[in-house]
Amino acid sequence: MGLGLEPRRLVLFVECKEATVLDLDQTLNLELPFDLQVTFSSTAGDKASKFTGYWQTAELYTRAYEKRPWLCESETEGAVAPPVDLTSLLPDLGVVHDQPERVAGTGLGPPGTLRGRVAPSDLAQDYTSLEEALHSVNTMLTMLKAQNEDLQTRVQYLESCECVRRTCTWEGREKEEGSRWLIDSHTVCSCTSGKVHCCSYEGRIYRNDEVFSPHPCSKCVCQHMMGGPVLSEVADVTVCSLGCSVGCEYEGELYADGEVFVSRTNPCLNCSCSNHLVRCNPTHCPPTLCASPYKRAGECCPTCSEECKLPCTNPPSPLPGSCCPVCDGCGMNGVNFRNGERVPSGDRCEQCVCVNGNVQCEHLPCPATICSHPVRRAGDCSCVLDDVEYDDGSVWDADGSPCNTCSCKEGTVVCQTKACASTSCLHPNTEPGECCASCYHCLYKQRIYENGQTFSDPDDSCQRCTCQDGSVRCAVAQCPSVSCSNPYTPPGQCCPQCPDCVFENQVFVNGETFPSPVNPCEDCVCTGGHVNCRQQCQRPSCNYPVSGTCCQNNCNGCSYAGKEYANGMHFPHPTDKCRECHCINGNVQCLMKRCPSLQCSNRISTPGQCCPQCPAPPADCVYEGHSYRHMQQFYHPSDSCQSCSCTDGKVSCHRKPCPLALCTHPIFEQCCRTCDGMICGNGERFPDPQDHCQHCSCQNGGVSCAPVSCPVVSCRRPVRPAGECCPVCTGVCEYFGQEYESGSTFTPPTDRCLSCTCLNEIVSCQRKPCAQQCSHPARSTDCCPVCDLCLYEGVEYKHTQTFTSRSNPCQRCVCMSGTVACTAVACPAVSCPNPVTLPGQCCPQCRPCVQNGIEYKEGQRWNSPSDPCTQCTCMAAEVSCAGLHCAPLSCMHQVTDPSSCCSRCRGCVYDGVEHAEGSTWFASSGPCMSCMCVDGVTTCSEIQCLSPCQNQISVPGECCPLCADCIYDGRVYGPGENFHPSNDPCQICTCEVMPDGQQHLRCYRKQCPSLVDCPKHNILFSGPDSCCPVCAQPLSNCTETLIGNEVLATDDPCFTCQCKDLTWTCIHQTCYPLSCPPDEQYTPPDSCCPICNDLNVQCVYEGQTYDSNEYWEMDECTTCTCVSGDVHCQTERCPAVSCTSDESPSLIPGMCCPHCIPRPATCIVFGDPHYRTFDGKMVNFQGACTYVLAQDCEGGDFRCVSFVMHSHYLQECMRNTMI
């Protein structure tokens, strides 16, 4: 279709039909604006609604069409009247191709070459063509509306599916919507609405809140701000503020306006700051009178050198502008002092003063002492005990025992023993570091339990005991019910339990659920010693899953109508070929195929096809030697009173229809009878030949005419259609100066949030529906509220944000999707008698306490700043302080840390590492040497292996072989269970799970702590089930006086105990195998290892002969012993060495293991000149003197000096060491 507008004419082209020309009585004046836009949309007046038609191309021209703008076969039309240039009315907008939003102008139609047109000769045919064109347009609009409704329904469905996940792409990687990430340590980027937002300015990325200067007079800051009407969308904004500070910036320094200065990089430039500009001029140097002038560091002009001859030994630094110093003051270690000023000395017993360039020192007199143990400290009377010096008034534990304390009083040491009060509990315990027993823990049957701890009685597993404030109370244990029919009671336990299951050589605990080792699709459960397995499939989350490993619950594909399809695959419907299906994550969606648009109105449906089609183009007609197009109307070639038409190759003719002549004497004119010029009879009525809206009558030779009577219309704005006599109602509505067709929907210009409908001149409006409604929406310029935020009492709150009402502090409100819901605040109970309610608060609260200017809340506890061992409490606005109560310790060795108020158990020190009381570890000397700390005594011995089972396996890293399973004496043990084989309390076997998942028994002989020098008559066994003996009296302490001493443990001669690091360390002696038969071996009294009867057996090793039991050293790390003719050697194992950055490990002659020593260092001088010291620091200094680089400060063996002259240097190293 093409439409051409001219000042007095309208031309319409529809397909290849004859052009319709409408001549206008008045001139058509198109006053079009410069920014005219004609928009194709689905909703009138709403440009944002997408056009869903099938236009292929739209073109806009500033000149009307002269001919049909496309080519038709059998073209017979001539040219249209000359066009009118509309350039003056509308600027040249060019051609705009069709998109979802199209722009058009004065000419609209499909592309083609402009061709001519033959004007019709009959006005009635013009109206007929217009009516057909309007009917076609109305039919197309009806079809487009139906398609638009269908497409809108599909779009709403697809949008509700959440099938498309919006993502962002950053440096080739996909980021999810809403995610945030760091591109460096300070810059955060986010993915919002499918776009990546980072803070950048002029091509560079800046971190949040970073202040930068892109230009000399501008300062900018990167701020992360909220933008747009939707507050969940985050945008990065760079805010810049322009402003210059008064002054100049030069070489990284700021100078005030008017300031004069010397360049830092070039001392020969004198610069000044004026009006933010720096101007520099070269310095003019005066001539020098000497032969070899030189430049001082930091100066521009050269000067003459001088020879310095001074009468003093400690002159200060030379004055500026001179090379030699003067003896007015003193210089010491780079610091200048005035005459008479005191100079610090390395000896505090000396007092030094500066006198004319010389430092004079004299010894200070010492006052007389009145104490018995004076030390060399002026006026200080301290005490010396065991080569340790104590300050006057200090208190310490004597011999490391908390039961004996000593104090220093005016140089005299006074020691006394603490007295212990009786306890109120039944099982008190002496805490580590304490002297007296307390009720903080329970000591029950040689075991220590925490306060409140529940445990089984060591002698009776059916007794459940509880430690409460130092007293142990026991009761019979309540056994839980069992669910199996065959329970049993394991040895050493009280309650019966269900048996475990053995399935496929694996042991499973009763009630345990596990995957079947035979069928991976089954889950098994152990119940009463029996294993039950069954297959359980999880219900899939999709409707058409495919088969998985075990069940049909895999949603990564679709199983539909007996066939499987890959995820995302499109496939035809199995029964309806007019539908196409899509597999999406196990769900199948089938939609009708989309049919192409047809340009014909008489569509036909072909069997077996999904979409309708246009019929074959009709044939033209040939009639009496003339050719005519399909549907073309023409006059009979030989009879002009006949009208013919061509229809699909056939010609049909009929006479021209004539109107009824109502007169009695019509005349024949142009094939029809007419009353024009007729003769009427008296009383005859007939229509006015000139005006068909007038009816005339003949009376007595005269004719009288009157208008036709019209029915009354009920509308306010009736119109009379062309060719009609009576007005009719069109239903057109007039609303705010604009007209709207009946049945149309439009948006009024006064309120874009209204949707109005025109129906029979009546306009009804209502607000556009909103998808989401809320009671407290945020401010928005859209028609619908923004429910992402809440606007409540003039303040905006985020979704799910909780806040307190500004008008009522007792209301706690929450913002949920634009709606605010408030509830009353529940006030907690207060513990003070007279609470107060502060202004702006809802709940009463207790008054705080103030101490030393610090405010504390009711019930708050804190340590006093003046005494950290005093704890204060705020109660009823008053502060009460009391000393901190320390829990009593049961251990013998107790220490108090400098930052602590209470003592703690010191534990044991082994190889310089402190171990907690009761802990165990492996010694560094061997992987099978186990150590334990009990009562401050370290006991180390080789692990003694047991082999109660026949099937044994060796595991790498284990000292002892393990049993192949957890079965002993016909019983299966579960993980963690243990027992005593042969009913020996010293033998322990435990079922453990190895890293490979297998269960094995680990058996060993229990290690007992050494009793050091406990007398034999005081060594007791607590009962028949006890493995380790105890000492009836406290063991001796390892004090400083005993460090280095060795004793043999009285309970076991194989232990040798040594006092070191204030800890008894007992090492079990290793017995080597003997070469003599067992019947010739015996163990001497009070000895650990057996020996052969023949004491004269000697050993020969590397040509040397050694007596039996003789000991010698091979090197610094290896020692050997002759044992009954056999040589046994042992090599020391060195611990790991951890050195600082300025140290390195090194071997010292005579020692086995490396130690940390200072690293070698180098001092370098180079360049103009540059110095790098021994510790790696760089110093740049210019001068023309002699500098000492390094020298021996004690023996004076060497001295290295540097001579610097004229920026050249020579280095000389002088040595006079006697080697």
TrEMBL record:
Keywords: Secreted, Signal. PROSITE patterns: VWFC_1, VWFC_2, VWFD. Signal peptide: none annotated. InterPro entries: Kielin_Chordin-BMP_Reg, VWF_dom, VWF_type-D. One of its GO terms (cellular component) is extracellular region. Residues 1161-1219 form the VWFD domain. Residues 246-305, 381-440, 442-499, 556-615, 619-676, 669-730, 731-788, 788-847, 847-906, 906-964, 964-1032, 1097-1157 form the VWFC domain. It is found in: Secreted. GO terms for biological process: positive regulation of BMP signaling pathway. It comes from the Eukaryota. Pfam families: VWC, VWC2L_2nd. This is Kielin/chordin-like protein. It comes from Pygocentrus nattereri (Red-bellied piranha). The lineage of its organism: Eukaryota, Metazoa, Chordata, Craniata, Vertebrata.
